[in-house]
Amino acid sequence: QVQLVESGGGLVQAGGSLRLSCAASGFSFSTYAMGWFRQAPGKEREFVGAISWIGDSTDYTDSVKGRFTISRDNGKKTLYLQMNSLKPEDTAVYYCAARRFITIATIEDAYYYWGQGTQVTVSS
Question: How far apart are CA 87 and CA 59, in angstroms?
Answer without folding.
Answer: 20
